[in-house]
Amino acid sequence: MSKIQYISRKGNFDSGHRVMNEFMKCFNIHGHTYLYELTFSFENMEEIGYAIDFKEIKRVFCQWIDDILDHGMILNPHDTKLIETTREYGTKLWLMSLNGIGSYCNPSVENIAKEVFLAMEILTEVLYEKSPTGLKIHNVKIYETPNCWTDCLSDSITDGERRYFYDVRFKEIAAYAKSKG
Fold this sequence. Notes:
By secondary structure, the protein is of the alpha/beta class. It is 36% helix and 27% strand.
C-alpha cells in the first residue's frame, strides 16, 4: 500500500484589489505582490520516479495563475464602478465567485486562496483524473505580504462555495485545462 507524499512549487503574481466595506487601508485601491505555494498530494509515482514533473506544475497550474490573475484586478462583484473602469481600460479582471455569480465576495487573501485552490482542483480533475498517481491539490498558501499569509485546504471551503465556484467557473477552467493538453 502506498503512502501519501507531497510536491510543492512556489510562484508569485501581482494584482490590484480593494476590500469593500473595510474602513482602514484596504478599502483603498491597491496592489500586492502575492507569493504562493501550490502543494499537491499523490499516492503513486509514475515509472520515471515522480507523480508530476515540476515543469508541468509550472506549465499548467502556475501558468493559469499568471494568465488569469497576474497584473490584473481581483474584485468583489458588487464593486461596480471599479469593475466598469477596469473594463473600460481593457484591464485583466477576475470577479470573485465563491458566493455565486454576481454575489458579494471580497477579494481578501483568504477568499483569493479559496478560488485559486478550487481552480487548481478543477485543473487537476480535468487533466489527471485518469492518472494512477492519485494527484490532487492539497494546499494553497498565499502570502499577501512577507509577514501575512493564509493556508487553504479542501476542508477550508464550504460545500456552498465549492458548488457556486464550480457552477460559475468549471467550463472556463476546464477549457483552459484542455488547451494545455
